Automatic annotation (TrEMBL):
HAMAP family, per the entry: Thz_kinase
Keyword Nucleotide-binding carried by entry: yes
Any one Gene Ontology molecular-function term assigned to this protein's record: ATP binding
Listed Pfam families: HK (PF02110)
Domain of life: Eukaryota
Keywords assigned by UniProt, alphabetized: ATP-binding, Kinase, Magnesium, Metal-binding, Nucleotide-binding, Thiamine biosynthesis, Transferase
Signal peptide span: none
Biochemical pathway: Cofactor biosynthesis; thiamine diphosphate biosynthesis; 4-methyl-5-(2-phosphoethyl)-thiazole from 5-(2-hydroxyethyl)-4-methylthiazole: step 1/1
Catalytic reaction equation(s): 5-(2-hydroxyethyl)-4-methylthiazole + ATP = 4-methyl-5-(2-phosphooxyethyl)-thiazole + ADP + H(+)
Protein name (database record): Hydroxyethylthiazole kinase
Length: 285
């Protein structure tokens, strides 16, 4: 009987197959560690961000008062800053928390929501980028505007660009800022300025639920807390895990409202088999 020849796997194939294992290990760490994640975020997203963190096993703290920052921020495991409903009253809290986090080596994530909507918003974001976020996550239009520091007429929090169209822009921003940059889209792009991967998880209906992008930014913070030394892997894994939960939830959903519920339930109930078979992350040129 003739023996079958085994074709050796390429390094790229092995890396892509290993992403499921990486994502599962990180999710398991989040569940075991229950990291405390401080979120200075917008009014629209607070509920779904907190519930996403709880469903993943993390502990959310929606704390933004400047009077509490110096006492509280030093004790968190990660920080998430989202400028969705930015105001002059909240910006000092954001800058103070980000400064403390950087000084104390606490990983923090910036979500530059609608960064080009106003000069005030753009300048605030540029100041926050200067405070060294570990990860910056936004849609393609937001990343483009932040990278070029231009005020334009993008559609608020919606993107008029495809994530795959701004890969080089994202790489440049990562190199300039020192942050891992994640670009959300039909394919999520993650880069540290050299490596680039694409996350092919999620369903279009997730775009019909307000603040899902904000929620996944908070999840990135939780994964960073689980493994602060590997922000590239933590970011890609969090985006993929959230997308897998959305795919499972979509099988049970009838529309955006029920998908929101089933997405959170699915994130809570993810098991090793679902993660290993569902995670779809590929290397990109």
């Amino acid at each position: 009987m003739e023996e079958k020849q085994t074709i050796p796997k390429t390094q790229k194939q092995e890396e892509e197959e290993n992403w499921g294992s990486k994502a599962w290990k990180l999710l398991t760490k989040v569940r075991e560690k229950a990291p405390l994640i401080q979120c200075i975020t917008n009014y629209v997203s607070m509920d779904i961000m907190a519930n996403t963190l709880l469903a993943s096993g993390a502990s959310p703290a929606m704390l933004h008062s400047i009077n509490e920052i110096s006492d509280f921020t030093p004790h968190v495991h990660a920080l998430c800053i989202n400028i969705g409903t930015l105001s002059p009253d909240w910006l000092p809290s954001m800058k103070s928390s980000a400064t403390l986090a950087t000084q104390l080596n606490i990983p923090w994530v910036l979500d530059p929501v609608a960064v080009s909507a106003s000069d005030f918003r753009l300048k605030a974001c540029l100041q926050l980028v200067g405070l060294k976020p570990v990860v910056i996550r936004g849609n393609a239009s937001e990343i483009l505007a932040l990278s070029t520091a231009s005020v334009g007429s993008d559609k608020g929090v919606d993107s008029s660009q495809k994530s795959t169209d701004v890969v080089e822009v994202a790489k440049s921003l990562a190199q300039a800022s020192g942050a891992v940059v994640a670009v959300s889209g039909a394919v999520d792009i993650i880069t540290d300025g050299k490596r680039v991967v694409g996350v092919h998880n999620g369903v279009p209906m997730m775009q019909r639920i307000t603040a899902t992008g904000c929620a996944v930014t908070a999840l990135i913070a939780a994964f960073l807390a689980a493994d602060p030394l590997r922000p590239f892997e933590a970011t890609a894994s969090a985006l993929s895990i959230f997308g897998v939960a959305g795919e499972i939830g979509m099988d049970l959903a009838k529309g955006p409202a029920s998908l929101r519920m089933h997405l959170i339930d699915s994130l809570h109930g993810l098991d090793q088999k679902s993660v290993f078979s569902g995670v779809n992350i590929t290397s990109m040129p």
